Amino acid sequence: MHQDLRARAMLTRWLWAAVSVLFGAGTALAEFGFLLLTPLIALPGPQREPLSRLAVRLTEVELRRITRFHGPLYVDALSPQRCRRYLALRWLVGGLGFGVLLMLVLCVTTAGSMLSAWALGGDWGLIENSNQRVDTSLLALTVAPGTMLIFVSIVGVSGVSTLDHWLATQALGSGDLMHRRILELTSTRAEVIEAINDERRRIERDLHDGVQQRLVALGMLVGRARRATGGAVLEQAQSMVQEAIGELREVALRIYPSALDSSGLQAVLESLAQRSSVPVRLSFGLASRLPSALETVIYFVVSEALTNAAKHADPTLIEVTVTPGEDRIRVVITDDGPGGADPTGTGLSGLASRVAAVDGRFLVHSPPGGPTSLEASLPCA
């Protein structure tokens, strides 16, 4: 059973490598065409900038392909000069991959035609008018070299795929030490975010179980005293205590929404929409739970956006959409207010920092006259 799983995993990896080499052979044609145009870069004129952008664009296509089939690849900033050097070598790897795949196809096709001719006792129809009959002796002579060629082709596909990844790492990568430090920083940052959320949970529990319960008891006591004496002062005191309880609950909710752990993100966002002083239309497209850090960021982005819109924009409707992508979650909050929001303001810059803490992107689009749109794009892979 274990050997079957290993064999299946090896076959899957080889198939992924073959598909990567096939796509790489196709992109090599575009890269060869680009190299024919590179002499124009040395000439003065407006053609240099478009060619530099094309070099970066072709390199980005290659990086997406390699990342898709080989996993993450850490690279430095893509300068046009580095991209041109990479493409000058990359098309050779793509051409080599095309040759290996072509040899594999020819070997398998030839072997299949010979075996079918031998099994049916007919002529070898791969070569027209050859009148070459495939008998046992001819088959025995070709089995060893044919098997060797097929084996070399199969290994060659894996080799070209590995060479492709190695070339991108050497030409564009940021080095093993940088890779390790990036991984360490990413892991540490995730741990810090989780620790902060744990601390927020603790503070929320302390407020709920400690101070809030005392205020509730005080309110009940003042209520009993007011009913006994009928004093106006006690009535005012009870009212103030009730206001304090309400404010304390809001503070606890802003520190950390405990309902996220029990009810989930959708229920908490629906609760935010119901409590908003402005009508909110919520569209939630996530089918499963996200990591706690991501759900917390999404909650605070939506909560702060609703508060800012109600306080500063005076809109009649706010739309909130949460939609999944291939590897990112997209959160968009749009209001029909007059626009002109300042992205550098305290509220929006704080949201940008929250989103950046999880490798997300935060965009603000608020032209004069509106509408205002806030978009947070968060990685989920």
Overview of this structure, please?
The protein is an alpha+beta fold and 381 residues long. It has 3 domains: 2-174, no CATH class; 194-255; 262-379, Heat Shock Protein 90, CATH 3.30.565. 69% of the residues lie in helices and 9% in strands. The protein has 10 helices and 5 strands, in the order H-H-H-H-H-H-H-H-E-H-E-E-H-E-E. The chain has helices at residues 2-37, 48-70, 80-120, 136-172, 176-229, 232-255, 259-263, 265-275, 292-313, 346-356; strands at 280-284, 318-324, 328-335, 361-365, 372-379. A 5-stranded mixed β-sheet has the order 1-2-3-5-4, covered by helices on one side. Helix 2 (48-70) crosses helix 3. The radius of gyration is 33 Å and the shape is elongated. The relative contact order is 0.06.
Write a concise synopsis of the structure shown.
The chain is an alpha+beta fold and 381 residues long. It has 10 helices and 5 strands.
Structural class estimated from helices and strands? alpha+beta
Which percent range describes the beta-strand content? 5-15%
Largest beta-sheet details: 5 strands, mixed
Number of domains: 3
* Unreliable residue stretches: none
Question: What is the residue-averaged pLDDT?
Answer: 80
Order of helices and strands: HHHHHHHHEHEEHEE
Helix content: 55-70%
Which strand order spans the largest sheet, edge to edge or round the barrel? 1-2-3-5-4
Cα radius of gyration in angstroms = 33 Å
* Number of DSSP E strands: 5
The count of helical stretches stands at 10
Tertiary shape: elongated
How far is it from the N-terminal to the C-terminal residue, by CA? Answer: 30 Å
InterPro entries: HATPase_C_sf, HATPase_dom, Sensor_HK_TwoCompSys, Sig_transdc_His_kin_sub3_dim/P
Pfam family, one: HisKA_3
Enzyme class: transferase
EC number: 2.7.13.3
